[in-house]
Amino acid sequence: MIMTAEFPDDARVTLAHGAGGRQTAALIARVFARHFQNPDFTADDAAILPVGNFATGRTAFTTDGFIVSPWQFPGGNIGKLSICGTVNDLACMGAVPRYLSCAFQIEEGFPLRDLDAIAAAMAETAKAAGVRIVAGDTKVAGRGQVDGVFITTTGLGELLPDAEPSGSRAEAGDAIIVTGDVGRHGAAILVARRDFAIDAAITSDCAPLAATVRALFAAVPDKSAIHTIRDATRGGVGTVLHEIAAESHVGIELDAPAIPVAPEVRGVCGLLGLEPLYLACEGRLVLFAPQAIAPKLVETLRALPDSRQAAIIGHVTPDFSGRVVLRTEIGTKTLLPEPSGELLPRIC
Amino acid sequence: MIMTAEFPDDARVTLAHGAGGRQTAALIARVFARHFQNPDFTADDAAILPVGNFATGRTAFTTDGFIVSPWQFPGGNIGKLSICGTVNDLACMGAVPRYLSCAFQIEEGFPLRDLDAIAAAMAETAKAAGVRIVAGDTKVAGRGQVDGVFITTTGLGELLPDAEPSGSRAEAGDAIIVTGDVGRHGAAILVARRDFAIDAAITSDCAPLAATVRALFAAVPDKSAIHTIRDATRGGVGTVLHEIAAESHVGIELDAPAIPVAPEVRGVCGLLGLEPLYLACEGRLVLFAPQAIAPKLVETLRALPDSRQAAIIGHVTPDFSGRVVLRTEIGTKTLLPEPSGELLPRIC
What we know:
The structure is a homodimer.
Chain A: H1 22-36, E1 47-49, E2 59-66, E3 72-73, E4 76-77, H2 78-92, E5 95-107, H3 112-129, E6 132-141, E7 149-159, E8 174-178, H4 184-193, H5 210-219, E9 228-231, H6 236-248, E10 251-255, H7 263-272, E11 285-290, H8 294-302, E12 311-317, E13 324-327, E14 333-335
Helix pairs in contact in A: 1-3, 2-3, 5-8
């Protein structure tokens, strides 16, 4: 449950909140420290972490900046998103997310109640992902210098022994699995933005997937058999597949009818002429693993709350290296065009 | 020497550069990977670091967001600043900075040549500080959604054995040392902004101080004798002193004539009615250590390039706990007012 604070409607972030003096300390105490409290949290310049205790001694380190307009959308807000994005990046490296830092850049005049809701969502999502927010920074920018609030999160994760998923390890014969229906986050943001006067009830898939990845590795005797894990965020599943095809020097053949797409997402894409494969997800993974273990992985995924619609959507072939081919419902094959900025709707 | 790239005048950052597709990869390769190259640098989702090898097994973790307008100023630019800020935060914890991540939020239309100059300054400063930039993220915001470029850096540092500087360890009898003249960065930004039509040649003190801190710890047989180190950034030396007085439950007495202030900084402060103690520094430390070792620390500092004007500026007293008193040139004592947002000129 998200805690709600007692900020009046008209309480706003001021430049003084970002000046490093008394008001900054009060903002940190009243909003961030209250929500993020844990034994490693610091209001000091840096947190001191027992990272040397990590079993493998190897640490994954990743950073991600979040800009999203509107700051809240069906299924989440920028706070939840900023935790999911970094947690999922760590998980995709085969790491257990342990610690996060977060840096806020807030526009003068941003409602304190909204900032509080963002911090509450961050705390709730971090708890669900088993990660601690330990350090942070708050800057306030003048009106018009930043649009609402930007958040940058940076994560430290403990690498699972023997796990070594990588975008360059996809192999001919691998099955390609997606953990749920695609394009949900991008479609939810497009609709929430109301640029297109489309009324559709689309909920973002935004979710932390650390537990999902741990369950996958626990399900296979040989952890190195999970060749590749990627979260399909910016640019969607299509962009991720192109990246993996290029990095692994393999071809990818997708079975179009097998790709799960929610009817409401398909509807919005049809209206706007968009390909769901290029819409961002924020709670979907793309996995590459040998076909022999793929059914076991799908079974594991379908038993978990955020991946009930997991499906095998294609396979890796030694042919047409670096390319992604879509086999359509009527059996014809078409090349999935390589993503370029112009093709992608801007959602962040 | 900063490398200059061959970007034409009119080459600009576009939304496509931030969409996660081919243009994003090109921007990373052409600007960031080129400048930041080192064995641990990743263009992947996360860097894998041998943090478990740190001698003490304890790691310092800190994050800081940088917004500065204008993005370049005499003595540096936002890129240099973003490295110095995080490196210095780590150094102040008694840690040797090892790894940095950086996240960019760039306004559509920002000149590529300027972005390149920022990345070059980051690479040069990181090299000078002995730290590796290993992971990053690039987002592009629409015109007007962000003012120029924001950078968030996050750092990992290896704690020096036995070093335990802290804002709560200042003790009655400690000498207070500042490593150079105060208020330079804040004054440089105020002048560079041209809001006040003041023409003064003021160079920011922006500098990485990791080597300075290492030299200080090497100069004393008992590292724990250095009680407190803080970099006097946002809010300046005055804010830092108030924080330490409060955290350590002690009083601070400053010797006003001993505080080094450059004549040009004093001039600008006089014109604008500002107190140099409340202007930001970006290359100055405030140290607390017993008076017996203070001369040795000052001698060590004066032999180093970024702290030639180091000076003892006051001492800690058991009286007036939590307060900062200024002893003036004519021997009278005045209370240095507690910083509050309204008093501080906004420089970020």
